Prior knowledge:
By secondary structure, the protein is mainly alpha-helical. Helix content is 70%, strand content 0%. Belongs to the urea transporter family.
Amino acid sequence: DRMPGPLSARCRRSALxxxxxxxxxxxxxxxxxVAAKAIVEPAEHKSPSEQGRVAAAxxxxxxxxxxxxxxxxxxxxxxxxNSAVSGAVLLGALGAADLYLAALAALxxxxxxxxxxxxxxxxxxxxxxxxxxxxxxxxxxxxxxMGEPAWSVDAALMTVAGSAMSVGVFKLYDxxxxxxxxxxxxxxxxxSLIVAREWTHAAAATVPALTxxxxxxxxxxxxxxxxxxxxxxxxNSHAAGMLTLIAIGLYSRGCAAHVLLGSSIGTATAVALxxxxxxxxxxxxxxxxxxxSLAVGVFFVHSPQAMLLSSCGASLTAALFGGMKGAAAATLxxxxxxxxxxxxxxxxxxxxxxxxxxxxxxxxHSPEMNAP
Length: 372
């Protein structure tokens, strides 16, 4: 016998519902393999150096002592290293050369960073140390070139004043389509030295009699690039040069390679131009070239064209240093500091509009991170 109508309808609805659920379960698509791959890919792309940078960024110093972290990054930014760890190692390098030099470098960086914080400096730039690196260099230059005795109160006061001025000059140059590099440092330090006119006394005590670079012993010539690296911070120390190279290498091995390459090319160019051996031996022909080569590695996408620009830029910087140093000493009575680097690096930066295959990095960092 047939079941009553209402019950039969309920059965049909139950059966239809069961069939629908079964169909959905059977035909539901499985998660594609690419979904699992997408979860793994970010970890696969992280190199050990990248993981180290992430760990450094998460360091408790940044959260507990942000001003100290920004100041240490300011020391690192002298050589384009946005790292408090590298900044601390660099201060140790300066201490290995001269504790007084390290003290004024720290004073200059700290003063500039604090003044920037109080003066409403852009928070993002303050955090990564861009407020402090010019102040660091002002402290280094005043420690060596002002002619004041070590641990002089006058030198400390001049460092505080000069570092504070560097923040204002930095903001004045800010917004230029080309990075200002160390232009604020040069503006403050050179103008101060012109007023002081005493840098020659400090230099005369350390520069030996002039001889040809070709007459230098091979060992001394080979060690000159290391001194050139230390001269970035106005230090004349093999130990400081080696520790500076290590500090940069902790941030980026590619950046360390560019610095060593640039200083070596600057030294070789000096020998080819017949530069005085005493200047070459002290590394004076290497530091501007090292900075130019490093700047190319930081701001350009790593490529054969960028490497060629890095090498040619380093050689041109050394030649420019040779032409400028005599004219500046004769007319103004001051050293050229890092002006040759600023001029050549700015020209290199503008080359991306001319040289095919030469591209600026979207987020300047290092040759490894700027890889195409």
